[in-house]
Amino acid sequence: MRPDFLPLSRPSIGPLPSTAEVGRVLTSLDHGRLRSAFSGQANAILVVPDLEVVAAETIVLNARRFRRAQARWLGLGLAARLGWATERRVCQAVRVRRKDGTLLLGNLHATSYPADQRLADAELLRAAWFVTGLAAPEEPVVLCGDFNVPAARSRTLTDLAGAEWGFSTPGEGIDHVLVRGLEAGPQERWPVERRRVDGRVLSDHAPVERQLP
Question: Which CATH architecture has domain 45-209?
Answer without folding.
Answer: 4-Layer Sandwich (3.60)
